[in-house]
Design a protein that fits this description.
The protein contains 13 helices and 15 strands. The protein has helices spanning 3-13, 47-50, 59-71, 83-95, 110-125, 142-147, 179-192, 218-231, 282-285, 301-316, 319-337, 368-380, 405-420; strands spanning 26-30, 33-36, 41-44, 102-107, 129-133, 165-168, 199-204, 234-238, 262-265, 276-281, 344-350, 353-358, 383-384, 386-388, 394-397. The strands form 3 sheets. Strands 4-10-9-8-7-5-6 form a 7-stranded mixed β-sheet, with helices on both faces. The chain has a 4-stranded mixed β-sheet with strand order 1-2-3-13. It has a 4-stranded antiparallel β-sheet with strand order 11-12-15-14, covered by helices on one side. This is 4-aminobutyrate aminotransferase PuuE. It is an enzyme of class 2 (transferase). It comes from Serratia rubidaea (Serratia marinorubra).
Length: 421
């Protein structure tokens, strides 16, 4: 089987709306390595878009899924419950940076988690309004498209969207948006669009994922917490991409003194199995009536088993500490590359959530073209990189945190050459 032949079949069989980045097709994978159907090998710095913090096919995750497979694959938790769902909720409740007693509910996708957080916030407050931020990405369902702060490609041709959703500015020093500017944008929303007493929740990513790995300043999180407390608004942290050791803590919100009321999570929670969750203050989580939350596959037993194994691996292999160390090393390499690569405008990092933004040195404008060239050169040498950012001019690094040292060094060599060229 050849990649070109499969590509032809894909174009015939599947719609163009499902955009596909790579022209090659996966046949197998192990930790941080992918092999395609033609036997070519690639170092995977995409990890299924931040899903594989514990790598492809971690032995502990595989063993957990196999063991559950021998017991049962599905009952629908709302019909016949099972202990593993309850014990996983207990583990997350202990670890989530939430003030006071915590409860957790499981779902299937990140978008579903965010959508359920909105349902819970509205049920608890009795208010309709939701505020999110420009550059944020929260999903592809109708509610989460409305929350997402980026039009192309996510919203093109799909409107109208659910109402009572408003977008503030997210702090971004490189693009001249200070924390004060961001807070002023919320005040403008309160004056022009919606009374703060009608706002149920402010939803933000502590590090914007699709938006370019923009890290929320500590003073911004503190100011949001103060604002929410003043007006009875819930603070919701979307940790779908930042969760499970990526930033050097289990959750990115652990880097801040202020705590959210609700946290959404998915992606690396279950090591490649579809599972998401909402965790939050017990009295908030209990607002919806019985039957108001759930889903046919929500908290699927195979995915729950995988998540238990993921949490074990993060602790046993000290992946939070490793994320800090690998991220620090990568930032050093990027800083060294600056001397020979004037297109580097900014390097941003929190643990192993690292990004580099490129501008055209001639005019200082964001350069998606340069970003594409770096991606292509790296891929020619066998390194898979992902881009992001509102202008498509950011490369984000999402290697498995379990990547072998030797392979990580090899990948950084490829990256350095791609930047120098």
């Amino acid at each position: 089987m050849k990649n070109a032949e499969l590509n032809q079949r894909r174009q015939q069989a599947t719609p163009r709306g499902v955009g596909v980045m790579c022209g090659f097709y996966a046949e197998r994978a192990e930790n941080a390595t992918l092999w395609d159907v033609e036997g070519n090998q690639v170092i995977d710095f995409a990890a299924g878009i931040a899903v594989l913090n514990t790598g492809h096919r971690h032995p502990k995750v595989l063993a957990a899924i196999e063991q559950q497979l021998q017991a049962f694959t599905h009952t629908a938790y709302q019909i016949v419950p099972y202990e593993s769902y309850v014990s996983l909720a207990e583990r997350i409740n202990q670890r989530a940076p939430i003030d006071g007693p915590c409860k957790t509910a499981f779902f299937t996708t990140g978008a579903e988690a965010v959508e359920n957080a909105v349902k819970i916030a509205r049920a608890h407050t009795g208010r309709p309004g939701i505020i999110t931020f420009g550059g944020g990405f929260h999903g592809r369902t109708y509610m989460t498209m409305a929350l997402t702060g980026k039009v192309a490609p996510y919203k093109l041709g799909f409107g109208p969207f659910p109402g009572s959703v408003f977008h503030g500015q997210y702090p971004n020093a490189l693009h001249g948006v200070s924390t004060q500017d961001a807070m002023n944008s919320l005040e403008r929303i309160f004056k022009a669009d919606i009374d703060p007493k009608q706002v149920a929740a402010i939803v933000l990513e502590p590090v914007q994922g699709e938006g370019g790995f923009n890290v929320a300043p500590a003073e911004f999180i503190q100011a949001l917490r103060t604002l929410c407390d003043e007006h009875g608004i819930l603070l919701v942290a979307d940790e779908v991409q930042t969760g499970f050791a990526r930033t050097g803590k289990l959750f990115a919100m652990e880097h801040y003194d202020s705590k959210p009321d609700l946290i959404t999570m998915a992606k690396s929670l279950a090591g490649g199995m579809p599972l998401s969750a909402v965790a939050g203050r017990a009295e908030v989580m209990d607002a919806p009536a019985p039957g108001g939350l759930g889903g046919t596959y929500a908290g699927n037993p195979l995915a729950v088993a995988a998540a238990h194994a993921v949490m074990d691996v993060i602790d046993e292999e000290q992946l939070c500490q490793r994320a800090q160390r690998l991220g620090h090393h990568l930032v050093e390499v990027l800083q060294q590359a600056r001397a020979s690569c004037p297109a580097i405008a900014e390097i941003r990092a929190q643990g192993s959530m690292v990004a580099v933004e490129f501008n055209d040195p001639a005019n200082g404008q964001p350069s998606a073209e340069f970003t594409r060239q770096v991606q292509q050169k790296a891929l020619q040498e066998g390194l898979l990189l992902l881009s992001c950012g509102v202008h498509g001019n950011v490369i984000r690094f999402l290697y498995p945190l379990t990547i072998p040292e030797e392979q990580f060094t090899e990948a950084l060599g490829i990256l350095s050459r791609a930047l120098a060229e």
